[in-house]
Amino acid sequence: AASDADGYVTVTLTSLTAGPSHVSATLSNHSQASVTTTFVADDASATILNGNLIVTQDNAKADGNAQNAVRARVTDANGNPLANQTVQFSADNGATLSAQQAASDADGYVTVTLTSLTAGPSHVSATLSNHSQASVTTTFVADDASASILNGNLIVTQDNAKADGNAQNAVRA
């Protein structure tokens, strides 16, 4: 580019990628100078893209202590990570979250754990203040170590069969 009447040259840069951008200027006599400019992520377009909310630990026992875990990654519309974004979490099927909300780290990640006393699927949602939302399903499994048959739960459903080797009595637990 040619210089103006005062000897200045102005150029503009754009980028979809957050981070440093190195700019060098070289004159025809090989005199050279370099500077660094920085592009930042666009927090106005914060989102949790499909695939950016994942289950990192699954199939915990439904004993109220064992934990499943989910991790969200908050990025801008161009995939640049966003730090310090508040993510609201919710879970169903009686699951208890380690935090109802948490802030993303420098790489855009935030992880929460959850416990449950109820075996089965638990749907976890992560929501940003701009209503961007993602959901995943995590599963809790029955705790067979604490399984028991409670009084009254073993019942006779068919009784007084003839003792002929064919007729059947039945019980249900």
Automatic annotation (TrEMBL):
Gene3D superfamilies: Immunoglobulins. GO terms for cellular component: cell outer membrane. InterPro entries: Big_1_dom (IPR003344), Ig-like_fold (IPR013783), Intimin-Invasin_domain (IPR051715), Invasin/intimin_cell_adhesion (IPR008964). Signal peptide: none annotated. SUPFAM superfamilies: Invasin/intimin cell-adhesion fragments (SSF49373). Pfam families: Big_1. Residues 1-40, 50-141 form the Big-1 domain. Belongs to the intimin/invasin family. This is Bacterial group 1 Ig-like protein. It comes from Edwardsiella tarda ATCC 23685.
